[in-house]
Amino acid sequence: MIEVKKVSKSFDGKKILHDISATFYTGKTNLIIGQSGSGKTVLMKSIVGLITPESGQILYNGKDLLAMNRSEVHALRSEIGMLFQGSALFDSLTVLQNVMFPLTMYTRKSMAQRIKRAEFCLERVNLKGVNNLLPSEISGGMQKRVAIARAIALNPKYLFCDEPNSGLDPRTSILIDELVSDITKEYNITTIVNTHDMNSVMGIGENIIFLNKGHKAWVGNKEEIFTAKNEALDDFVFASNLFKMVKKYVVKEHLESFFDIKEEG
């Protein structure tokens, strides 16, 4: 579990995060959502340790990241997997070598052990026959799966995904969402996904943190989002006519169910 307590951050005198407090649960897909400029990327980078907040605490199973020494931070890094927006694979390395990279950086495993682990991770994300190919020789969706395989190579306790569906077609996006969700539960990982993809929100949003202008404006899950009474959230989530229609349908069903219960009573 990761807890964020009263975290604030400013750049050039402008406050980006205003006393954010949130809990991200183990074994669940935790989503951070919000408009561009809402502070969601700054929050994620603060949690990972790429940005240092001016105040607050970031607790990894009760231990404050901001109070850790260098060796403790290094040890924590080995427990973190990162899935970047553009996959961030090394162009000059093969698929297998990309997945092996964190094993080389953070472990003393033999070459044979690293290869075995990398091959296992590639099989786990349903990639076969591509080990010796370069990233440029496979599709965008396959590149994303390679990035997921690399992210789980160290068997992390924590997984961070920054816009994992960026640049992908809807069908591939759903496959990536399902893969992230499956891996989260299978390995009991604390997963945090930074996204503006409403399909992801409705598909895998088990714990959703909505940021609005640097403030935590709402917390809930994918079911509760339909009946939430939050104007800023509505403007963000239900911007498209499709999702507006879905919300009207869900609310209608909710009300009809409520009145049926009252009549029975």
From TrEMBL:
<feature type="domain" description="ABC transporter">
    <location>
        <begin position="2"/>
        <end position="238"/>
    </location>
</feature>
<dbReference type="InterPro" id="IPR027417">
    <property type="entry name" value="P-loop_NTPase"/>
</dbReference>
<keyword id="KW-0813">Transport</keyword>
<dbReference type="GO" id="GO:0005524">
    <property type="term" value="F:ATP binding"/>
</dbReference>
<keyword id="KW-0547">Nucleotide-binding</keyword>
<dbReference type="InterPro" id="IPR003439">
    <property type="entry name" value="ABC_transporter-like_ATP-bd"/>
</dbReference>
<dbReference type="InterPro" id="IPR003593">
    <property type="entry name" value="AAA+_ATPase"/>
</dbReference>
<dbReference type="InterPro" id="IPR017871">
    <property type="entry name" value="ABC_transporter-like_CS"/>
</dbReference>
<protein>
    <submittedName>
        <fullName>ATP-binding cassette domain-containing protein</fullName>
    </submittedName>
</protein>
<keyword id="KW-0067">ATP-binding</keyword>
<dbReference type="Pfam" id="PF00005">
    <property type="entry name" value="ABC_tran"/>
</dbReference>
